[in-house]
TrEMBL record:
One Pfam family, short name: AMP-binding
Keywords linked to the UniProt accession: Acyltransferase, Ligase, Transferase
SUPFAM superfamilies: Acetyl-CoA synthetase-like (SSF56801)
Domain of life where this protein originates: Bacteria
Residue ranges constituting the AMP-binding enzyme C-terminal domain according to the UniProt record: 644-714
Protein name: Acyl-[acyl-carrier-protein]-phospholipid O-acyltransferase/long-chain-fatty-acid--[acyl-carrier-protein] ligase
Keyword Transferase: yes
UniProt EC number: 2.3.1.40, 6.2.1.20
Length: 728
């Protein structure tokens, strides 16, 4: 029988065992606990008396139920809503007095992949009212976060990570969640795969998926199989090696087959790709080239002619791919043959690609500069491999799935998710050079049955006009980021296309993905039958953190820790967090402390682990001592002004210095109208009628021809502030 299968600790990794008290009188509250996990935990406890706590009627694995019915096994049952808290406390106290270790057994639950916990927040709240010390236990199955290019892990390869004992006032849901996230981050960081170099991972990805997956260049609908992409990149890599001795190589191309091949070629040449933001100003571009120490640039003739305003370097520094690739057919054929016959490790050795990358720089990106001068973000091999693993393991996509790649390659989401992710995971990729040509994008989505669409709220607005519902029928995930998702856009998109917009959250410094909403899992059974169900989508939030991430919240002014459920400055920790800005120790020290990254965003976590972003600190104004979020004010203004159906941004709220109250809000609008002073007065009355606090209402309106936005669709805060200050 399966129940008689011998269980050993051979494949179990134990972290934090020093946190396990030597006696009893405490409760172990695990993130999850299957039957064999339970047997291993009993072995770890080395024969100490155990009392199990189970929700009355909980759906348990049949072997777990049999285990609980044995004569020498003791269990307590409770029912939320029926069992009074005093009775629950007394039962736990009696068990604790006897020196037992109390273990909670979670019911079978429908959850997202690799969840923080399988226990709903309301149940956790009840369990934590027991008034006894609680030991958090994070149970991590290695197979839950394994890359497709790794070996297969067995069910027995598990990590038990014991947290510090929570006692007294620490025994609360916020503290438990924070501890569990820390344990998850530490457990994920144990993976040896995180030391793999990006080049080595790409070689394995191309070898594994070469004949199965393809890239479609949506501009001319040319289709190239992964193995042909690989061979072309291998041939181009040899040219790059001969052309420059510098560490970094610039790439000036939009999303497309050419951009993909160039990025892969630079990595396979053992160098660092730098996708330059060709929409930035001259000073920003020249600064990026200088700071990146770049002397060769991969681009295309047609792009050079199109981007007349770009500060192009001398022609001798340009590698024009459409000129050299047609002359390389023999070299491409040679590398196609070699890539087929040589095993991945030998091919890597031939190319000089190390298996280990670790904390060496793999990619250089520059921040959008939406609120200041662009910063050089040097992402390591570990950062990128971690984020590909985190994003991929959470989405659980299959090899027949397709991604739409139309975000700029200098955009961190466009880079990680539409370059490295599909190659390593084995997904079809359909590219297009612009995210704004939505009718063409809709045609590509329909024709190639695209399942994952990455966009921003600004670009999503354009789909609401002129795109048929049927065009997006194949979409499983419509993920948006870069800016806050207005509820008006989410509701309108779902009404038109029948697709939920899944808001995520990320920053260039986090490689970039950190949080994501996903479609809710299908229930395993009725709640009355004892099954648990944990939502994975909550509108207004940016979802759960990805596997292996830790979160903490602090006071924005003092950096003193506050509970996760309280609004404050968001800090992140994880293998995908960068290690510093390029040659900028001062600005690095401002945001990095002992591995924790200060995001600059204000937010909180709710009872079920969903993160809410309330705004960027730079997009708050302190008015008469009160912190006023610009984005919340903007959303109210959109409704008050009837702008819900607009496809482009029509307003922006900016703070300017004010002698009386510290700051005042200015409304920038591109909408035509009458006298500005009269219109802002009318708006004031409308907003007051809706219950908006007087301090939150803009003091002045300034008309502009267009609201400044960046290429990613983000608001160009810096230019908005210049306009507001000039007009105030």
């Amino acid at each position: 029988m399966a129940s008689e299968k011998p269980v050993t600790l051979k494949d179990l990794t134990i972290l934090g065992k020093e946190n396990l008290p030597s006696g009893g009188g405490f409760m172990i509250l695990p993130s999850k606990l299957g039957y064999f996990d339970l047997l291993r935990l009993e072995l770890v406890l080395e024969g100490r008396p155990v009392v199990y706590v189970v929700k009355k009627g909980a759906a348990l694995h049949p072997l777990l139920r049999v285990h609980l019915e044995r004569e020498n096994v003791h269990a307590l049952e409770f029912a939320i809503g029926e069992t009074a808290v005093p009775a629950y406390r007394q039962a736990l106290a009696d068990a604790a007095k006897g020196g037992a270790v109390i273990i909670y057994l979670p019911a079978e639950a429908a959850t997202i992949s690799a969840p923080m916990t399988t226990v709903p927040g309301t149940k956790l709240e009840f369990l934590l009212k027991g008034e006894i010390p609680v030991l958090p236990l994070y149970v991590h199955s290695r197979q839950d976060t394994a890359l497709p290019i790794e070996r297969r892990y067995s069910d027995a390869e598990v990590i038990f990570n014991f947290g510090k004992l929570l006692q007294g006032s620490e025994v609360n849901l916020a503290s438990y969640q924070e501890s569990l996230l820390m344990l998850a981050e530490e457990s994920f960081g144990e993976s040896p795969t995180l030391d793999m170099s990006l080049g080595y991972a790409l070689i394995h990805g191309f070898k594994k998926h070469g004949t199965r997956n393809s890239v479609v260049d949506g501009k001319d609908e040319k289709i190239l199989r992964f193995d042909k992409v690989f061979a072309t990149a291998l041939a181009l890599a040899q040219v790059i090696k001969r052309e420059t001795q510098k560490q970094r190589v610039g790439i000036i191309l939009p999303p497309g087959l050419g951009g993909l091949i160039c990025n892969v070629a630079v990595v396979l040449a053992g160098k660092i790709p730098v996708n330059l933001n060709f929409t930035a100003g001259r000073a920003s571009i020249e600064s990026a080239i200088r700071r990146g120490d770049i002397d060769r640039f991969l681009t295309a003739d047609i792009f050079v002619r199109k981007m007349q305003s770009f500060p192009w370097p001398p022609s001798k520094q340009l590698i024009l791919i459409e000129r050299i690739l047609p002359k390389m057919k023999a070299s491409i054929a040679k590398w196609l043959l070699l890539s087929k016959v040589l095993p991945a490790p030998i091919l890597a050795a031939v190319l000089g690609i190390s298996r280990k990358g670790g904390r060496k720089e793999a990619l250089l990106l520059f921040t959008s500069g939406s609120s200041g001068e662009p910063k050089g973000v040097a992402l390591t091999h570990r950062n990128i491999i971690a984020n590909v693993t985190q994003f991929g393991s959470r989405l659980g996509m299959q090899t027949n799935d397709s991604i739409l790649g139309c975000l700029p390659l200098f955009h961190s989401f466009g880079c990680t998710v539409t370059l490295w992710f599909p190659i390593i995971y084995g997904l079809h990729l359909v590219t297009y050079p612009s995210p704004m040509e939505v009718k063409k994008l809709a045609q590509l989505i329909e024709k190639y049955r695209i399942t994952l669409m990455i966009s921003t709220p600004t670009f999503l607005r354009s789909y609401l006009r002129g795109v048929n519902r049927e065009s997006l029928a194949s979409i499983k995930y419509c993920v948006t980021g870069a800016e806050k998702l207005p509820s008006t856009v989410a509701d309108a998109f779902e009404a038109r296309f029948g697709k939920s917009v899944l808001e995520g959250y990320g920053l260039t410094e986090t490689s970039p993905a950190f949080n994501i909403n996903l479609p809710d899992p299908a229930p395993l059974g009725d709640e009355e039958a004892g099954y648990s169900w944990l939502p994975s989508h909550r509108q207004g939030s940016v979802g759960h953190v990805l596997p292996g991430m830790a979160v903490r919240i602090t006071n924005p002014e003092t950096n003193a820790p506050v509970p996760l459920h309280q609004s404050g400055m968001i800090w992140f920790k994880g293998a995908n967090v960068f290690e510093g800005y390029l040659n900028d120790a001062k600005r690095s020290a401002e945001v990095l402390q002992n591995g924790w990254f200060r995001t600059g965003d204000i937010g909180r976590v709710d009872l079920d682990g969903f993160l809410y972003i309330e705004g960027r600190l730079s997009r708050f104004s302190k008015i008469a001592g009160e912190m006023v979020p610009h984005e919340t004010v903007e959303e109210a203004l959109v409704k008050a002004m009837g702008l819900e159906s607009e496809t482009v941004r029509k307003i922006a709220v900016v703070g300017v210095p004010d002698i009386e109250k510290g700051e005042a809000l200015i409304l920038l609008t591109s909408m035509p109208g009458g006298p500005e002073h009269q219109e802002i007065l009318d708006l004031r009355y409308r907003l007051l009628d809706k219950g908006m606090p007087p301090l939150w209402i803009p003091k002045k309106m300034i008309r502009v021809s267009d609201i400044p936005v960046l290429a990613s669709g983000k608001l160009d805060v810096q230019n908005c502030e210049k306009i507001a200050k000039a007009g105030a």
